[in-house]
Amino acid sequence: MRQLDSDLLRSFLAVTDAGSITGGAQTVHRSQSAVSLQVGQLEELLGKPVFVRHGRGVGLTEAGEALLPVARQVVQTLDRTRAEIGGTGLGGRLRIGIPEEQGAERLPDIIGRFARSHPAAELIVRCANSADFPAALVAGKLDMAIHEVETVKENMTLLREIPLGWVGSRAHPVAEDGTLPVALFDRACWWREAAIRSLENCERGYRVVLTSEGAGGIAAAIEAGIAVGLLDCSSLPKDLVPLTAMPGLGEIPPAQLVLEIAATSVSPLAKAMAEAVVRSYSETIA
């Protein structure tokens, strides 16, 4: 009788993370039929299905949910042991989320530090709007993420404070009275909530003229002179200026940029990446 080996577990993890047999097959560089066969073998060994099939792909059954943390631990232990014996640093796969506005400045330094020490590791980087990162951590779709919060919790590491403020165009100032045109992020996130709270607390009439998924869209609307918006005041383009004296715009408390590791992903590999991230943010990048 075939034993439960690491190849089956690796394919199980790949399908789980990808949400489909096709995506999992691409991750482990095998054909879809080969991974389907492995999933069938795994389910036969366990005597229960680990995936439930639906129109969009697959999801975990109760048995799959129980297997998931064990499979991650087994694969991480095997990769770590192989790397330690082989002297090539840690191995395995790590999924990290980093905000798109942080990626250009920090990402080369972070992955460079990490890869030099752990060349056998595989990194999967999600550089996007960080509003989705907390849910992805809880769902097991990310192992760790850098994102902004209002309050730092015990399971988070503070990287830096982000000074937030209302910003306008240097060349096209918005009128200081009347209804205020604003540009906001288009989804529920701390920055959007802070902006609306600031406006409502000051009882200033406002009108949303543009929403954007990223800071680039907000900055473009401000530079064009059609709106004001809430941005990181420590890294403003030269054509944008803080609106410190405009009536009706209250002060915004700084956002806390944190590193958070998923509860199911506390591994030597994740800890090594956390060290690289913290070192990068504690040093000035030339």
UniProtKB/TrEMBL annotation:
Top-rank taxon, per record: Bacteria
Keywords of this entry: DNA-binding, Transcription, Transcription regulation
Coiled coil: none
InterPro entries according to UniProt: LTTR, LysR_HTH_N, LysR_subst-bd, WH-like_DNA-bd_sf, WH_DNA-bd_sf
PROSITE patterns: HTH_LYSR (PS50931)
Entry's family note: Belongs to the LysR transcriptional regulatory family.
Name assigned to this protein: Uncharacterized protein
Organism whose genome encodes this protein: Brevirhabdus pacifica
